[in-house]
Amino acid sequence: MKLQKRLSRKYKDKEYHKYLLVIPSREIKKSGFKEGGELQIKSKKGEIKIKRK
Q1: Longest alpha-carbon distance in the chain
Q2: For the segment 26-47, what is each residue's pLDDT rounded down to a tens digit?
Q3: Strand locations in 1-38 (E)
Q4: Any idea of the CA torsion for 23, 24, 26, 32, to the nearest 10 degrees?
């Protein structure tokens, strides 16, 4: 997997970024996630958990 940082927008002198996590298709299929589905996220140092809402 790969974490990517993208510039979302610039406002005045400040830049705002968003992050994209590239997850392999086979892992999405195994998880049962669907495109457009709502997800819930919990994070702590060194760990991010994603599950369906």
Answers
A1: 43
A2: 999 999 999 999 999 999 999 9
A3: 2-11, 14-22
A4: 20
Q: What is the C-alpha separation between 6 and 18, in angstroms, rounded?
A: 5
pLDDT, averaged across the chain: 94
Do residues 21 and 5 lie in contact, with contact meaning Cβ atoms separated by under 8 Å?
no
The pTM of this model reads 0.62
How many Cβ atoms from other residues are within 10 Å of residue 46's Cβ?
Answer: 5
Closest Cα to residue 39, out of 25, 26, 50?
50
Structural domain boundaries in the chain: 2-52
Query: Cα-flanking dihedrals φ and ψ of residue 33, to 5°?
Result: -65, 145
